[in-house]
């Protein structure tokens, strides 16, 4: 299951005001279909209280899949708990991992340690045999899983439309409109500063987080289904559906910046980073 490229709250809001012509996918599991209907009126933070059973099943299923992947040693981390899980799985019996975890004490102990270390709280509670009660974080994660299952795939290519828009470090370069969506290319030129204090140099830089919301002058919203990970240069965003008939202006809301600072001391480099909550809007006029 791919992760979302914008905050789940933004995507849920966009789903409620989506431009005509949208073609969403249908979630494969019954619990995600229940949650998809619930998100029409529930916020992600309210989901666990409103639909605890569906949230538990959705989150537990995803955590069980992550456990299954971790037992192979190919998708885990270097943490000791991950290594113990791989060793325990290697010497356990055959069959589905989750069934083996429940039947074999050694594997269950290793799985419990891994679940605690990775923050898979519902999976850990399930292995302990205690009642499963979802909290707000579980509800938000379930909303992310649901929305990811709804989003269509990014469309490649399209016809170029003339655009004009600039705000600070950002410049709209092009909009390519396809059959089912459009791609917005934004040039981001956040500043990089090199300063010196005696023998110590410091580099301060901003990296753009990309767009967080796309709307039009008719009041419709658009889903951002994919975007480039780079925080500078030309950053591409794939949106769905295509601009609504009659829409003349797109408003592109920035998701802010990530600030980084690196001190270049003679012996060792020290770095820090933080999210910079500075948002900008680009107003793009669609032309021919």
Fold topology:
Elements: H1 8-16, H2 30-38, H3 47-50, H4 52-70, H5 80-90, H6 97-103, H7 105-118, H8 121-128, H9 136-150, E1 159-161, E2 166-167, E3 170-177, E4 182-188, E5 192-197, E6 200-208, E7 211-216, E8 221-227, E9 233-240, E10 249-254, E11 257-264, E12 269-276, E13 281-285
Antiparallel strand pairs: 1-3, 2-3, 3-4, 4-9, 5-6, 6-11, 7-8, 7-10, 8-9, 10-13, 11-12
Helix pairs in contact: 2-4, 2-9, 4-9, 5-7, 6-7, 7-8
Structural summary, described in words:
The protein is of the alpha+beta class and 288 residues long. It contains 9 helices and 13 strands. The longest helix has 19 residues, at 52-70. The chain starts with 7 loop residues before the first helix and ends with a strand. The mean pLDDT is 85. Strands 1, 2, 3, 4, 7, 8, 9, 10 and 13 form a 9-stranded antiparallel beta sheet that branches. It has a 4-stranded antiparallel beta sheet with strand order 5-6-11-12, with no helix packed on it. β11 and β12 form a beta hairpin. 34% of the residues are buried. It is globular.
Number of helical segments? 9
Structural class of the helix and strand makeup?
alpha+beta
Task: State the total count of DSSP E strands.
Answer: 13
The whole-number mean of residue pLDDT values reads: 85
Biggest sheet features: 9 strands, antiparallel
Terminal CA distance: 38 Å
Measured as a percent range, the helix fraction is 25-40%
The coarse overall form would be globular
How many whole angstroms does the radius of gyration measure?
23 Å
Question: What's the SSE pattern?
Answer: HHHHHHHHHEEEEEEEEEEEEE
**Uncertain regions: pLDDT < 50 for 5+ in a row?**
none
Q: Strand share of the residues?
A: 25-35%
């Amino acid at each position: 299951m791919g992760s979302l490229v914008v905050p789940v709250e933004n995507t849920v809001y966009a789903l409620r005001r989506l431009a005509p012509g949208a073609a969403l996918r249908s979630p494969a599991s019954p619990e995600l279909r229940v949650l998809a209907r619930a998100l029409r009126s529930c916020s992600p933070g309210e989901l666990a209280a409103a639909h605890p059973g569906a949230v538990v099943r959705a989150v537990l299923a995803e955590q069980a899949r992550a456990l299954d992947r971790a037992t192979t040693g190919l998708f885990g981390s270097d943490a000791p708990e991950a290594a113990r899980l791989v060793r325990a799985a290697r010497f356990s019996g055959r069959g589905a991992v989750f069934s083996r975890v429940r039947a074999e004490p050694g594997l269950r102990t290793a799985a419990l340690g891994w679940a605690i270390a990775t923050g898979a709280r519902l999976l850990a509670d399930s292995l302990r045999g205690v009642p499963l009660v979802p909290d707000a974080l579980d509800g938000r994660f379930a909303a992310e899983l649901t929305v990811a299952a709804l989003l269509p795939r990014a469309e490649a290519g399209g016809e170029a439309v003339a655009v004009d828009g600039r705000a600070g470090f950002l410049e709209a370069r092009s909009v390519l409109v396809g059959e089912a969506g459009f791609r917005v290319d934004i040039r981001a030129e956040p500043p990089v500063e090199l300063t010196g204090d005696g023998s110590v140099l410091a580099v301060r830089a901003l990296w753009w987080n990309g767009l967080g919301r796309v709307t039009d002058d008719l009041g419709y919203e658009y889903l951002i289904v994919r975007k480039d990970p780079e925080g500078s240069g030309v950053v591409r965003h794939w949106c769905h559906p295509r601009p609504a008939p009659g829409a003349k202006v797109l408003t592109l809301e920035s998701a802010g910046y990530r600030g980084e600072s690196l001190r270049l001391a003679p012996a060792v480099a020290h770095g820090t980073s933080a999210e910079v909550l500075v948002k900008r809007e680009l107003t793009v006029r669609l032309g021919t």
